Amino acid sequence: MNIKNLILILVACMIAAMMGCTSLGMTTIPMDKLKAKYADSESKIIQIDDMNIHYKDEGHGPVLILLHGVCASLHTWDGWTDRLKDHYRVIRLDIPGFGLTGPAPDPSLYKIDGAVNLFEKIVAEMKLEKFYLAGNSLGGYISWKYTLKNPDKVEKLILIDSVGFPQELPGVISFASSPLVRPFARHVFPRFLVNMSVNQVYGDKSKVTDTLKDRYFELTMREGNKGGSIDVFTEFRKQCKDKNLSAGIRNIKTPTLVMWGTKDTWIPFKYFEKWKQELPAAKFIQYEGAGHTPMEEIPDITARDADIFLSGKTDHANNN
């Protein structure tokens, strides 16, 4: 991070400090309060490896599992669920470290092998034989790694702005996971940093509402989630430099759709081209003006394209 950005962040921290502990992200929001706002009648808990994993299971039809990305929660799939649950059984969960699930008791679960093994246990506990799988960002990384290991389970795969190649870390993740900042970020995660992240992952900033920013911030304030986020960021810091990060992509035989927002600043659009090179048999759709989370930013279009791919309907999507 350059000196200019560091100075801006330090100044913003001073402003946040003057505004109080809540804006500085030093608070912890009680679980009962978070559940009252972010859980509902569809919310369920599955106990795996000493964790109460929050998930939702809605609709009827072929099973479609949805995995969210860094700093997000299962709510990032609200738009897809509303549009697809009439034709699919949609299962989405809060990945450990985020949402109502909270932190993993064992930090090794934040490593990719640990995350894949945990997902295998979830699938086994739910007694799922075959299903469709879609993941965004970190969720995409877990999805394609799981598919490589369990090709008999995943009938079709959708990757949305997925981790897959060595890259520069997004600024917020780089800053929060730096050795000097990391110990403090476990306890202090200013609201302005969360708001900055939400703004960065949207291509159309006009779609970033106060309600959206509240959700991202408040779920980050769940007990243990600040530390969980930093553990994930720290692991990303290691993974993003690994030259073998993309190993195995060429071996994916499962029918795959890769979606990407052209204004993604967290995993820039140039990586979409790398996926084309490594996985030429896949289908590819780009979304002009969308950011890192197009399934949340433009759910109508992306859910339609997902349905076309999964159902085998006539493909009128913009393949590139």
Give an overview in words.
By secondary structure, this protein is an alpha/beta fold. It has a single domain, classed as Rossmann fold. Helix content is 42%, strand content 15%. The protein has 14 helices and eight strands. An eight-stranded mixed β-sheet has the order 1-2-4-3-5-6-7-8, sandwiched between helices. Strand 1 and strand 2 form a beta hairpin. Helix 4 crosses helix 14. The longest helix is centred in the first third of the chain and has 17 residues. It is globular, with a radius of gyration of 19 Å. The N terminus is likely disordered.
The coarse overall form would be globular
Q: What is the H level of CATH, i.e. the homologous superfamily?
A: Alpha/Beta hydrolase fold, catalytic domain
Q: Which class in CATH terms?
A: Alpha Beta
**Count of runs of 4 or more consecutive helical residues:** 14
State the total count of DSSP E strands: 8
What number of structural domains do the residues give? 1
Which CATH architecture is right? 3-Layer(aba) Sandwich
Q: What order do the SSEs take from the amino end to the carboxyl end, as H and E? A: HHHEEEHEHEHEHHHHHEHEHH
Strand count, sense and barrel status of the largest sheet are:
8 strands, mixed
Helix content: 40-55%
Please tag this protein with its features:
320 residues; Rossmann fold; alpha/beta; 8-stranded mixed sheet; disordered N terminus
Question: What secondary-structure arrangement, pairings included, does this model have?
Answer:
Elements: H1 3-19, H2 21-24, H3 31-38, E1 43-48, E2 51-58, E3 63-67, H4 78-84, E4 89-93, H5 112-125, E5 131-136, H6 138-149, E6 154-160, H7 171-176, H8 182-185, H9 191-201, H10 210-220, H11 225-239, E7 256-261, H12 270-278, E8 283-287, H13 294-297, H14 299-311
Parallel strand pairs: 3-4, 3-5, 5-6, 6-7, 7-8
Antiparallel strand pairs: 1-2, 2-4
